[in-house]
């Protein structure tokens, strides 16, 4: 059985994969897909943190989109990977290949072709919250209408994120759905790029 | 208010914090401030001085000062920070920051921000 990756090792492996992706002509790669493929347990906000860290260190250019974090290695990041000890690449490649049961090349193609669909997760969280509100406040709570508004906004091609933020802030008052609301905020209130 | 993502580094050991923090850029502040988020990190560095900080509410505090490095978009800056465990925010004092470093341009977290040495 493969050992669970340490956080710092995960960062190194991500940079290694990003460097290979760049060499294969791929530009921005989804960190959400990469982290999931490396079977590292991380919430969406954890992945956003990883993105911010790589960006602040100057190792990757990162942009945040709805439900995804895309990264492209920078030349500083390439140098960081190249300066790792010789055995690093071997270890990283062997870990990834045994985990994915694919060659590194196939792994990168796979990761870059898997579409990230955050809407399914977002609607699942909203539905779970609706269930809890119904349980604690009944069928006629205003909070249910607020969540319905969020849902309707998200079906639009150009959702009003200010309105969504107002509704989510209002819903934060309900302690029993606070973790769901925070998760929705992480997904929906995308940091500026 | 503009924020910048910053990674703090111990200039003596080269150790970098493994988390990114958002620092509020305050063009009027004469010093940078870190809070209890960096408690364990700062314990490994010797203070070189102390600094009296007066906040808006009038309270006066004597805070130890440390030399650290701030990494922003891969660029490393030597800055001195005051440590106030109870400060509710992390602050990058523009004035102090500019005195020690040459100019550069960053994208801040919430809006575009230019920091230029005059």
Give structural notes.
- The complex is a heterodimer of chains A (193) and B (118).
- Chain A contains ten helices and three strands, in the order αβααββααααααα.
- Chain A is mainly α.
- Chain A has a three-stranded antiparallel β-sheet.
- In chain A, strand 2 and strand 3 form a beta hairpin.
- In chain A, helix 7 packs antiparallel against helix 10 and helix 9 packs antiparallel against helix 10.
- Chain A is elongated.
- The mean pLDDT of chain A is 90.
- The longest helix of chain B is centred in the C-terminal third of the chain and has 7 residues.
- Chain B has a single domain, classed as Beta Barrel (Cathepsin D, subunit A, domain 1).
- The model of chain B has no long low-confidence stretch (mean pLDDT 82).
- Chain B has two helices and nine strands, in the order E-E-E-H-E-E-E-E-H-E-E.
- In chain B, strands 1, 2, 3, 4, 5, 6 and 7 form a seven-stranded mixed β-sheet that branches. A two-stranded antiparallel sheet of chain B has the order 8-9.
- Chain B is mainly beta.
- The chains are: A mainly alpha (193), B mainly beta (118).
- At the A-B interface, helix 3 of A face strand 1 of B.
What is shown here, in short?
The complex is a heterodimer of chains A (193) and B (118). Chain A is mainly α.
List keywords for this structure.
heterodimer, A: 193 residues, mainly alpha, Arc Repressor Mutant, subunit A, 2 domains, three-stranded antiparallel β-sheet, 3 strands, B: 118 residues, mainly beta, Cathepsin D, subunit A, domain 1, seven-stranded mixed β-sheet, 9% helix, 47% strand
